[in-house]
Amino acid sequence: MAGITGITPEFKNSDLIRKGAFVDGQWLETASETFNVTDPATLEVIATLPDQSIEVIHEAIDSAAEAFRLFKKTTPKTRSTWLRNLYNLMMENVDDLAKIITWENGKALSEAQGEVKYAASYFEWYAEEAVRMYGTTIQPNNGSNRAFTVRQPVGVCGIICPWNFPSAMITRKAGAALAAGCTVVVKPDSQTPLSALALAHLAEKAGFPKGVFNVVLTATRTPEFGLALCESPKVKKISFTGSTNVGKILMKQSASTMKKLSFELGGNAPVIVFDDADLEQAVTQTILSKFRGLGQTCVCANRIYVQRTIIDSFAEKLAKQVNEFVIGHGLDSKTTHGCLINENAIKKVEAHVKDALEKGAKTVVAGGRLPELGPNFYAPTVLSHVPSTAVVNKDETFGPLCALIPFDTMEEVVGYANDTELGLASYVFSKNIDTVYTVAEALETGMVSCNTGLFSECTIPFGGVKESGFGREGSLHGIEDYTVIKTITIGNLPAPL
Ligand code: SIN
């Protein structure tokens, strides 16, 4: 097959490349079955890992439950120190960790480096939050009672993560869990497990006791592993990032044990560009949002509504910047944008492009497959005057199709934007503060990003509304999801002196 072959990264710290799952402080490298991890840019096998049996997930849960007995009693200061060590270790290994992400996910190395720093920032943030878990004091109506609340760790947490951020989606959840005093069982996506294993190695080095941070591996038993986590009475919380459909399944499965849940699910983010926006800024920021991870993030722009008066000039400026992208192997330093994760991802982009064209959209940048680079390469497509009946309005492309849809009035566009069951992120561009604020309040999404295409960072509460899920990650709120409130009342006190 034509394409790029044989790009193997050189690692300064080869200990980061692990060959097995990490359970109860042990590396489990053998199993009766194995699965391959491939470089999506070349389809070359980069690792062969154990495809573990269902017993292993139960061992991991048991280990996490046993470790929790002591870990919940560690002081916040101790947990803060271990989290800070973990942050420092990630930052010492940024280059290697980024190469691992690029190798297994396909994103450009500069983006992968950004992901490692973003991922590490959650450990730094939660090192600082661990010591700030406050309760409240209450004045009961009963005058001889006094009451207060304490926050306690919820217990063992099942953390189920996607392939699009092989490192950051783990640290955003595990950072909060570990800070709160919870132990974790991490199930990474089988397409991108190497970053999770590298994190397990660093967590051990950072000082976390055995059983506190476990990573299990499977490619063929993902539903069974999910079921085991959801149904185990020892697991007290599930945190999942992935599709809305899988979220619904996990929610049903968790009902029997009444688990605490936080779900970050599908997006379908609208971008609204008003004609009083700074056009250059709106174009550049829309591109940053649309093509982060080549369109494969839950907060990527999916439907780009541009006021009719400026849609043609917006499209022209956008096309100019998109045509400057350098698509290639993520490990090549010249590459600005890498490849998609797999063939299905490309097929979905193609289906959305075909549908929009059939319904009357105009081609601005044709884009399309790049078989000369490899099977998963696709040059971005930009379409303008996409009708509101096109599938892309309803269904998240999760890939490099930039669909520009015209609108005339604020009321009309807010109607379009909210006409979906999903509500993760949305974007507004206008230099009129009244417009920005009115639209931001009206949009039915958990996050509204105004005049910027990039808003994610550890300080921001990240999460959705409607069928995009619930719970907030990062920020001062993130740790709450990993704790339960206990109320302590002291009664029958003597009358005040
Ligand atoms: C995601 O795609 O799920 C996460 C995106 C982000 O953290 O910005």
TrEMBL record:
The active site is at 264. Its EC number is 1.2.1.16. Keywords: Oxidoreductase. Pathway: Amino-acid degradation; 4-aminobutanoate degradation. One of its GO terms (molecular function) is succinate-semialdehyde dehydrogenase (NAD+) activity. Residues 27-488 form the Aldehyde dehydrogenase domain. It holds the Pfam family Aldedh. It comes from the Eukaryota. CDD domains: ALDH_F5_SSADH_GabD. Transmembrane segments: none annotated. It catalyses: succinate semialdehyde + NAD(+) + H2O = succinate + NADH + 2 H(+); succinate semialdehyde + NADP(+) + H2O = succinate + NADPH + 2 H(+). InterPro entries: Ald_DH/histidinol_DH, Ald_DH_C, Ald_DH_CS_GLU, Ald_DH_N, Aldehyde_DH_dom, Aldehyde_DH_Superfamily, Succ_semiAld_DH. It is an enzyme of class 1 (oxidoreductase). One of its GO terms (cellular component) is cytoplasm. GO terms for biological process: gamma-aminobutyric acid catabolic process. Belongs to the aldehyde dehydrogenase family. This is Succinate-semialdehyde dehydrogenase. It comes from Kluyveromyces lactis (strain ATCC 8585 / CBS 2359 / DSM 70799 / NBRC 1267 / NRRL Y-1140 / WM37) (Yeast).
